[in-house]
């Protein structure tokens, strides 16, 4: 007998007991489909992270300043960071202190207790991408400018929730009270959350970092957003920042600096480990499916002893019988794998479109 005849016999055997053949292939179908879906979604998530980084800027560097923690008052003056940028224009193009605080926000008789206030500089907004360093874009007006920060002027940029709830969407030029001080609205951010709600992503205000520090009653800035001159100079810029902070604190634990490239590597490494675990779990289904096929083949040998005996009496050799069952097992695995591949690709496409739709809706708001 040739291979074609073996294959025809294998297909005939599968047709004879369709349900048993389907259940035998089920483990292979699930395993192959799961592996394809996991790998596809993992690659999609990595691409999404890369796109997010590109939108924020691959030359972004974040520096966290903790201080020495020994009870001393070695506060780092933001002016020192501005001087660092001026001294190294070949690798650094700008810096923005980043202060997060809460204060009493009021418009008329309405008080907003859950609004997050961010204190930044004009560098926080990138003119080339028309977005902030954390991905926010303007719907109306402008962002903070150099003169606003330099003179600590009482101007602000509102999130979409406050602009809608407090001013009915007509916020430009209006006044809102922050910590008992009236601020003029010069800009409104585009909605970025799924819904406009108090305490949500769009319930925020940007003001000058000097004003934010006054609201906090503090002079300590714990986070700085640096901009390297390019992707290629980000590593050198990080070295310059670290050297400056070490000279100031004489303690490597007093600060922590991370480039966007390092953040991407860290995220991708974590996602890679998670994908390996998920693929390993999916591979268990493949193993179980393979064992199931082996078991069914052994059962088939027992059930078909009469058929085997007749074929041997007609001159079939042991290798012919063995080849028949091996090809039958291989055919079962191949059909199950093909179905798994098709289902995996279809499900991966469906899930990709669903996720893209959800994220798109969230971004468009």
Quick structural summary:
The chain contains ten helices and 15 strands. By secondary structure, the chain is an alpha+beta fold. The radius of gyration is 32 Å and the shape is elongated.
Question: How would the blueprint of this fold be written?
Answer:
Layout: H1 3-16, H2 18-56, E1 60-65, H3 78-87, E2 92-97, E3 99-101, E4 105-107, E5 110-112, E6 116-120, E7 125-126, E8 131-132, E9 138-141, H4 146-150, E10 155-158, H5 160-167, E11 175-178, E12 181-189, E13 204-208, H6 209-216, E14 223-228, H7 234-249, E15 255-259, H8 260-303, H9 305-313, H10 318-364
Parallel strand pairs: 6-13, 10-12
Antiparallel strand pairs: 1-14, 1-15, 2-14, 3-6, 4-5, 4-11, 7-8, 9-12, 10-13, 11-12
Helix pairs in contact: 1-10, 2-8, 2-10, 8-10
Report on this structure.
By secondary structure, this protein is an alpha+beta fold. The chain has helices at residues 3-16, 18-56, 78-87, 146-150, 160-167, 209-216, 234-249, 260-303, 305-313, 318-364, and strands at residues 60-65, 92-97, 99-101, 105-107, 110-112, 116-120, 125-126, 131-132, 138-141, 155-158, 175-178, 181-189, 204-208, 223-228, 255-259. The strands form three sheets. Strands 3, 4, 5, 6, 9, 10, 11, 12 and 13 form a nine-stranded mixed beta sheet that branches. A hairpin with a 2-residue loop joins β4 (105-107) and β5 (110-112). α2 (18-56) runs antiparallel to α8. The protein starts with a helix and ends with a helix.
């Amino acid at each position: 007998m040739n291979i074609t005849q073996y294959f025809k016999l294998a297909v005939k055997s599968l047709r004879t007991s369709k349900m048993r053949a389907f259940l035998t292939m089920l483990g292979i179908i699930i395993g192959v489909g799961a592996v394809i879906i996991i790998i596809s979604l993992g690659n999609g998530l990595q691409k999404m992270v890369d796109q997010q980084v590109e939108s924020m800027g691959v030359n972004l560097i974040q520096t966290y300043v903790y201080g020495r923690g020994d009870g001393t008052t070695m506060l780092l003056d933001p002016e020192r960071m501005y001087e660092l940028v001026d001294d190294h224009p070949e690798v650094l193009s700008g810096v923005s202190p980043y202060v997060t605080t809460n204060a009493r926000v009021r418009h008329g008789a309405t008080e907003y207790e859950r609004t997050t206030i961010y204190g930044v500089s004009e560098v926080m907004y990138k003119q080339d991408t028309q977005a902030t360093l954390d991905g926010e874009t303007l719907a109306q007006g402008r962002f903070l400018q150099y003169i606003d920060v330099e003179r600590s002027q009482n101007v602000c940029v509102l999130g979409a929730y406050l602009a809608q709830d407090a001013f009915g969407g007509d916020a430009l030029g209006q006044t809102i009270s922050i910590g008992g001080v009236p601020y003029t609205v010069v800009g409104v951010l585009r909605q970025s959350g799924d819904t406009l709600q108090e305490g949500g992503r769009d319930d925020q205000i940007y003001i000058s970092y000097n004003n934010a520090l006054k609201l906090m009653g503090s002079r300590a800035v714990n986070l700085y957003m640096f901009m390297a001159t390019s992707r290629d100079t980000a590593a050198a810029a990080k070295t310059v920042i670290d050297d400056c902070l070490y000279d100031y604190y004489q303690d490597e634990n007093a600060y922590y600096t991370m480039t966007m490239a390092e953040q991407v590597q860290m995220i991708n490494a974590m996602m890679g480990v998670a994908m390996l675990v998920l693929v390993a779990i999916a591979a268990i289904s493949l193993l179980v499916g393979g064992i199931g096929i082996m078991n069914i083949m052994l059962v088939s040998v027992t059930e078909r002893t009469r058929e085997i005996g007749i074929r041997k009496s007609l001159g079939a050799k042991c290798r012919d019988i063995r080849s028949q069952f091996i090809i039958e097992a291989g055919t079962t695995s191949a059909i199950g794998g093909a179905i798994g591949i098709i289902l995996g690709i279809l499900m991966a496409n469906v899930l990709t479109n669903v996720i893209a739709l959800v994220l798109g809706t969230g971004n468009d708001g």
